[in-house]
Structure formats: C-alpha cells, structure tokens
Amino acid sequence: MNFIRLRKNDLCIEKISANILAKKYETPFYCYSLSQLKNNFYSFNNAFRAIKPLICFSIKSNSNIALLKELKKMGSGADVVSAGELLRAIKAGINVKKIVFSGVGKTEKEIKLAIKNRVLLINMESENEAILINKISNKLSKITTVGIRLNPNISPKTHKKISTGGKNDKFGLNYNDLINLCRKIKNLKNLKLDGLSVHIGSQITSVKPFKQVLTMVDKIITKTKIDFKYIDLGGGIGISYSNKEKKFDLSQYAKLVSKFIKKNQTQIIFEPGRFIVGNTSVLISKVIYIKKNSNKYFIVLDAGMNNLMRPALYEAYHKIIPLKKNNNRIKGNIEFVGPICESSDKFLSQRNFPKIKEGDYVAITDVGAYGTVLASNYNMRPKIAEILVSGSKHKLIKKRQSLENLVNN
Ligand code: LLP
C-alpha cells in the first residue's frame, strides 16, 4: 500500500495535494504520511506474528518525537545508541523494558544512564565494555541485564559504508572472542547475560545473509549451552528505492526465524529502522534556478546536502518527481543539485524529466529513514520543518530552525 502517490497529475500525501502544502509551509520541508507509518509497522508485525517479536524501532533512522509517540502507540520499543536517543525514547513514552541500547562506544555516563533507567538490554560490543558495565553496576548496587553482540563475518552485500558484520568492521565480537567472553562473564557478578545480538548492515535486499546469521547463532547456542532469553537480530531489511531493486522477501525471513525458534525457544527482538520509516516521507523543495551549460541542465533546488546527505554520502538513489506532472519533457542530461558550495551537493542525474520551471516544486522520495537525522547546519543553513499528514489533516511536527536561533547559537 502506498499512501504517497500521484493522483492524476498531482502528488498527494494521503488525501492532501503536496502542492497545497508547498504553498502553505516554507520549503524545503519533510512531509510524512502517518498511514504509511502505521501500514509499515503493522505489516512488519504481521509478517512475524507467529513468533511475536519485540520490535525495537531503530531511533537512529528517525528520531522525530511525534513519530516515536505514534510508534509507541502501536506497541513499538526502541533501539538506541546514545544518551540522547535513550532520553528521546523515554520522552516519547516508550517503556524502558522495550529499550535496547547498542553501540560500540558507549561512555561511562551513557552506561550509567542506561543502568539507572533499567533498560531491557545493554548490548555489549567488547570485553572491556563488559568490565566497565560490571564495575558501574557494582558501584550502583545493581544487576544489569546485558546482551553480547556478535560480529559473524558475513557479508550483507550492501553498500560498503553501511555494512557492519564483516571481520574488518569495528562492531561486535568475533565467534571465538564471543564464546570466550560468554565463559568469562560468570565472573562478572553484576551482569546477567540475557541476550545475544547481531546486526550485519543496512539496506539488505536478500534473505540469504540473515539465514547465515541464524545458522551461526544456532551454533553459538549449542556451543555455549546458554539459553539466551533474547536473540536480537538487529535491523537491516532493505526497501525499494527504485523499480530496479529486488523486494525483500519478509515472509521467507519469517519462516526461517520461526524454524529457528522452534528449536531454540527464545524471545526474538528486531531493530528495524528503514523498513518502518523509509517510504513514509518526501522532501518537498522548490526549483530556484534552471541553468544550462554546454551539455546539461542544472536544476538548482532550495534543498541541499545539509538537508539530505544520503546521495552525497552513499551515492544513494532517491527518485525525484514534480508535484504537478507535466506530460511535456525536458530532453537531455539533467542534474538536480542544491545550493551548497560542494560539487557533491547533487541529488540525482538523469536523462529526461517532465517539463519544469523556476518556482515549481519537486519531491525527493523515500527520505523517511536517515534523512532528517543526518541533517546539519553546513553553510549556516537552518534545519528544516517536518510535517505530518493523516488523511486530509496536516500538522507541523518539527519547526523550521529560525535564522536567529542558528546565528546566535
Ligand atoms: N540496529 C543496529 C545495531 C544498527 O546499527 C542499525 C543501523 C539498525 C539496527 C537499523 O538498521 P535498518 O533497519 O535501518 O537498516 N545512514 C545509513 C544507514 C546506517 C545504518 C546504521 N545502523 C543510510 O542512510 O543508509
């Protein structure tokens, strides 16, 4: 189901024409569909209903509080990686017993905060981290429930900058170190080892690497003879940014996990980010100038790489569509760029595009995950507004940063 789509020649977010919103709110801005968010969460939940997983939405993909409150209402927990994300999750009303804390570089301060708030699991990524969590727990006279993160050395076949489960990546413990730490942990009296976690990367479109992960987790359970209360399989499920991309087969993944838990009775945790929010949002932007050099048209937008980093950072593809579709086309090479003083401030190159003129609006699609969270004030440009649409209603869920605030802070 797609709640952001063209109706006749008009791009609509649920029941509202994006063009109307573009005239009402100052561009550029992010615009979300609440129905799409609900649809994604419930389809994920449904696909895995046989195993009743705990879904801990990965807050790093989108930390807008209004969206987190909606996810909380749907029953979501949270995967957090910093004190900021932890406090944001709590502020959104998410139950601490549904919060897992991951990350390779948790500071003493962050660990203390997580312990004091009694989160479900702190997923440890090294022996030294285990020793530190034990020491802090001891000082606070607490027994802390922890998970241990595996680095399975499995390639997820995704972009190299978003792969996390290879032997050269900084994340988790390799098989042997993990087995050793599982043994040593008995001496760390203030830790209770309840979980085994693994996350091999993001935007993964094949089930195969997840199958390999499950095989290795199974092997670890047999080898350590530990009945982990929780197996946290991380996130990573890819979405289709273009028609060319393969659609991830969620039902096949669900079958594999069902088979796994028939053998190893445990509570499964997932930490999806992109799957839940990726296609919930578009970035609405205005065409400032159209300039032509010898061999291409530059369409200069009022949104820049500081608003959406993914194309510059990962050469990520995000389709661009005009809010009002024109059947005539500009023929030739077209490049959508932003106003920032960097050549990498470029969103998309393509041949042919519906005819467009200065002052018209376009939507950069599928920007709900890792969009606003990666935004910066580069070139002293303010962070932009976020709007939420539900049916024929719309509301501001994040104010555009004022120039005054930007200049004075
Ligand atoms: N759990 C852990 C431990 C993670 O590191 C991540 C993402 C997730 C869950 C959620 O993964 P997802 O379901 O969203 O794939 N900025 C990059 C993506 C970085 C992903 C970092 N970790 C991008 O824009 O593609």
What this model shows, in words?
This protein is α/β, with parallel strands linked by helices and 409 residues long. Helix content is 29%, strand content 26%. It is built from twelve helices and 20 strands. Strands 4, 13, 14, 15, 16, 17, 18, 19 and 20 form a nine-stranded mixed beta sheet that branches. An eight-stranded parallel barrel has the order 5-6-7-8-9-10-11-12, surrounded by four helices. β19 and β20 (393-398) form a beta hairpin. The radius of gyration is 23 Å and the shape is elongated. The mean pLDDT is 96. Ligand LLP binds next to α10 and α11.
Ligands, ions, cofactors: ligand LLP
End-to-end Cα distance, whole Å, is 42 Å
Flag low-confidence runs: none
If helices are DSSP runs of H or I spanning 4 or more residues, what is the number of helices? 12
**Could you tell me the number of beta strands?**
20
How large, in whole angstroms, is the Cα Rg?
23 Å
Task: Tell me the β content.
Answer: 25-35%
Give the % helix: 25-40%
Mean pLDDT: 96
Structural class: alpha/beta
Largest sheet: 9 strands, mixed
**Shape call:** elongated
